Amino acid sequence: MTKQFIRAFIETYEKVSSLITKSQGKLTEDIRTKIYDKVIEAKIFVNKLLLNEEITVEQKIELVEQSLQIINNILVNKPEAIQNLFWYELETIRRGNISLLMGFWGEAGILRVTGTANALANILMGIEPIDINDIYVEYGHPEYLKRYSLTYNILNQSSTLYYNASTALYNISEEKFKEWTTLAIKSQAELLQFHRKTWIIPRLYEIAKERPPESISNGFAVMIQSISQILNCLVTLHARCGGQWPEEIRTNPLLDSTNTKTVIDSLAKLSKEVEGYIQDLERHQKQGTFKHHKNILAYPVMEYTYSISEQHQYVIEGLKAIYELVIKGEKDTIGNLQKCNNSILAYLQKNKEKLNDKDFMVSTLGDESVNQFEFFLFFAAIESISTKNRRPLQEMKEALGIYLQEEGRKRFPQIYAIYLVGQLTFTSNEKDHEQMEKLAEELICLAPLLVFQPRDSFTFLLMGHLTKMVRGKETPEQFNLIMHNELEKRREFLYPEIIDDVENYLRTVRNAINGKKPNYAFERAEKNPFDPYSILIPNYTKITKNQGFINCIKSLVNKIRNRVANKESVPEWENIRYIPFNLSTDFIFSK
How high is the pLDDT of residue 566? Predict the structure, then answer.
């Protein structure tokens, strides 16, 4: 079955190419119709490919690359004067496929590395600007459904393309980040506005009722997915921006970027809107609006849509709870975080069978859930730390099944890293020295699994060896030598600014060990609930045997407090807060 699907997938794209080549530019009405129908078939094949759980994400990306090559060859020879709908459809598929290349993680992150390289090459080839005013027509036009779907896809693919480009690249210049982020947010705002204007279920069903039920289900699912995906985009972008959005975005109606609270409020409002669209569909199903079809909500694409939307909803709820508890310091709000974590655990228990299935882990949903799972562990870690109870984090680990077992660690080491750092932070507060030393060894062993992420692998080596050093299991000389050698191994893969930061950091550690005044990077003191590593920081003063380490930091408390202007994010300076170099903002460089 899988081999047949793969063969049919490629043959469909080859047939599109063949029809266009044979036409020799003479596009009669009959030929245009044949090409358009085959292009739509090719587009549907992409959706089927993503939902096919028998095909791994590695195989999917290979097929996407092959189809993208065929489309590029077709579009290179496109007549400039001809703008039939199928040309727009092909350009939309191209944008979608470029986005897909950047959207998967793969074994130890290899797909993210190879995919972004391939995608960047395609972006540099050029993304043809498309004015949706040339395509969209009002309801009543004979081609309304075709043009409505095409307009929706153009806005959706533009949003996803530029979002992925600004977040999937391992390092990105500040200039490109601002450019692509601005384009992503602009497209998202236009998409949301278009969706609100045209989300009239009876009308959409009436003009689509002659289509196969799976196609109708897919259409509604894509609409909800695209709006839900905006939530995921904004969460990641806010972490990358460090809370400081580019000036061009601050007036965008999509979100209020005044401060962290207003961003979370905007996301919560959008999350409720997505929930409303799902309820709207279910209501129309019960009312019999889809009278020509028994149950269009029963197809796999809807299950995928519901699951991703539910995950995003929990992330927003958790971020709001973290903001209240950690950033605002409102200790009596711990109940909100506990309630959110209980809902997450119930969701994971409901999907227990899948979460222990390797085939699910390598599926589209299994790969795309990774970002949300990282947040789930982060939320559980904060609950454990706040309540001085290891159980919440341990329960979340167990609920995530195979993802935190050996196979999952190899494929998604970044998830296990969140768990380990959460445990390390918890145990440092509890002064569980023996457990800390075990966690330090696990962090060191995790580093080789991040071979495609040199900055991250260095981060966890650093945290592991620093923990051993402050516990007296390594001498300062051993620590310095190991870190120097590990940095040298990665020097050619890291941009100069991050190397300077790391070297300054290591110098700060040496000074603190010797009781000298360290040179703090104050911008790293800002806590951002969207970035777990700005909050999950082991408390080394509670477990260190080096008195100079403690005295040096405590003598700087008042001076440092005066330097931190934003009282919303004032750190707990009574404790040493060494920020590991794994913050989201570290992806961006200014030169």
Answer: 46
Q: Are 589 and 171 contacting, i.e. CB atoms less than 8 angstroms apart?
A: yes
Encoded amino acid at 136, one letter: Y
Residue type, position 460, single letter: F
Location of structure tokens 């085959």: 38
Q: Using CA atoms, how far apart are residues 211 and 225, in angstroms rounded to an integer?
A: 20
CA distance 424 to 440: 8
Cα–Cα distance between 334 and 326 in angstroms, integer? 10
DSSP helix/strand/coil, 431:
coil
Angle CA(553)–CA(557)–CA(560) in degrees, nearest 5?
105
Count of CB atoms within 10 A of residue 288's CB? 7
Is residue 111 very low, low, confident or very high in pLDDT (cuts 50, 70, 90)?
A: confident
Q: Do residues 465 and 440 make contact, with C-beta atoms less than 8 angstroms apart?
A: yes
Which residue has better confidence, 543 or 477? 477
Check whether 556 has a pLDDT greater than 60. Answer: no
Rounded Cα distance, 167 and 12, in Å: 32
d(CA 505, CA 60): 41
Would you state the structure tokens that stand for residue 19, as one six-digit string?
Answer: 């029809």
CA distances from 485 to 443, 456, 479 (A): 17, 16, 10
Indicate the pLDDT class of residue 568, thresholds 50, 70 and 90.
very low
* Mean of pLDDT values over 3-26: 83
pLDDT: is 31 or 575 the higher one?
Answer: 31
159 vs 96: CA distance, rounded Å: 10
- Cα radius of gyration (the chain): 25
Which pairs with CB-CB distance under 8 Å and at least 24 residues apart come from 350-353? 351/307, 352/399, 352/401
Measured from the Cβ of residue 548, the count of other Cβ atoms closer than 10 Å reads 14
**Hunting for tokens 């260095």 — which residue is that?**
458
Enter the DSSP assignment of 518.
Answer: P
Residue 473 and residue 466: Cα distance in Å, rounded? 10
Q: Give the integer Cα–Cα distance in Å for 103 and 116.
A: 9
Residues 565/220, Cβ–Cβ less than 8 Å: no
Rounded CA-CA distance 487/500 in Å is 11
Q: Supply the mean pLDDT for the chain.
A: 85
DSSP label at 401? G
- d(C-alpha 115, C-alpha 106), whole Å: 10
Q: Rounded to an integer, what distance in angstroms lies between the CA atom of residue 510 and that of residue 504?
A: 10
Residue 55: DSSP 8-state:
S
Q: Are 61 and 83 in contact (CB under 8 A)?
A: no
One-letter-per-residue 3-state SS of 461-472: HHHHHHHHHHCC
283 pLDDT more than 90: yes
Q: What average pLDDT does this structure show over 108-132?
A: 79
